[in-house]
Design goal:
With 331 residues, this protein is mostly beta strands. It has three helices and 23 strands. The strands form six sheets. Strands 3, 6, 8, 11 and 13 form a five-stranded mixed β-sheet that branches. The N and C termini lie far apart (40 Å).
Length: 331
């Protein structure tokens, strides 16, 4: 399905915003758009101006995700988006000024998606119960393109229960677990042969009780006479990719499962009661892993699919390499 709005998610002070095509788009790009995390708000409430004015125009952060004070899932990265490009020669210094500390040691690294977005993720999933703090002290730090930081930013958040969903496209099932124990096995339908669902692991971006979805907004069909045309407002929507993958209920596929021949336009369909139940279980950062689709894995920057990169691939995009978090007061 396709959502008419272009802005999805929450902004810097209230979370993250991912911008691009949305809601079950079969032809979405493998990668997030250049405006991947455009903020609609101002800088973090914890930011403070530098007492000295550095030379050159300011280097600012548009967003830091997750929002400070939130509880997120075990696959949620720290994602930092800059207002202006950061040159390759400056990235190691910038990474060193974005210090990640935790209540227990965690091995991880930064990775750059283009020249404006840097994500930090652990080598494996976060341990549940971990408190995480990022101190981005950009005061006087250069971006290699003539801009210098004028603020420091601090976000603190917590890793909640280890909730995971494993979707089998061929088996028409979704297994939902919490802290290793199975909660439910649900019947699903995934994408059709024409509009297959992404494979791979995608951390939940956000969720909404209702989303307006249109086929025209994601380039599937603007012809009302087409069998692929739709213009619907659907409930219990769990958002997985910037290109438009959701787990949700669809009025066009009310009883999904192996007995139904209907496929989606790339989303994962649940029955109405199962969609409501799943919506109530998951939070931002919980991993949803999809297997059995003929489509490739979603690109790591298509939302928060960071764990679709192997660790060697992740480190190849880091300027400072692997490290172990330090312990700090408040983390």
């Amino acid at each position: 399905m396709g959502r008419r709005k272009s802005g999805i998610g929450i902004a810097l002070v209230t979370g993250v915003m991912l911008v691009g095509a949305s809601a079950c788009g079969g032809g979405g790009s493998d990668k997030a758009s250049g405006g991947d995390a455009k903020a609609s708000g101002g800088p973090s409430a914890s930011s403070s101006p530098s007492p000295k004015k550095p030379a050159g125009p300011p280097m600012l952060l548009e967003t830091i995700t997750p929002q400070t004070g939130t509880t997120v899932g075990v696959a949620m990265p720290i994602s930092v988006v800059f207002t202006n490009p950061v040159a390759a020669k400056a990235r190691a210094t910038v990474e060193k000024h974005m210090k990640v500390s935790t209540s227990q040691p965690v091995v991880g690294a930064w990775h750059w998606f283009g020249d404006k977005r840097a994500d930090w993720r652990p080598k494996a999933y976060w341990p549940s119960g971990t408190t995480v703090k990022i101190d981005a002290d950009m005061n006087g730090v250069g971006n290699g393109n003539g801009r210098f930081g004028v603020r420091s930013y601090t976000h603190t958040f917590k890793i909640g229960d280890d909730v995971r969903a494993d979707v089998s496209v061929t088996g028409h099932t979704m297994k939902v677990t919490r802290n290793g124990s199975t909660l439910r096995n649900l019947s699903i339908n995934a994408g059709s042969a024409q509009y297959p669902t992404w494979n791979g692991t995608m951390a939940v971006i956000d969720k909404q009780e209702k989303v307006h979805m249109t086929s025209c907004s994601v380039g599937i069909s603007c012809d009302k006479g087409s069998p692929n045309y739709y213009d619907l407002t659907l409930p219990w929507d769990v958002h997985l990719t910037q290109s438009g993958t959701y787990v949700h209920y669809s009025t066009g596929d009310p009883n999904p499962g192996s007995g139904s021949a209907r496929g989606s336009h790339g989303c994962v369909h649940l029955s109405l009661s199962d969609a409501k139940w799943f919506y109530d279980q998951v939070k931002q950062g919980d991993p949803v892993t999809i297997t059995g689709s003929p489509r490739a894995k979603a690109s790591a920057d298509n939302g928060y699919a960071d764990f679709n990169l192997g660790w060697d691939q992740w480190l190849a995009g880091s300027a400072s390499g692997e490290g172990t978090t330090s312990s700090a007061t408040g983390a």
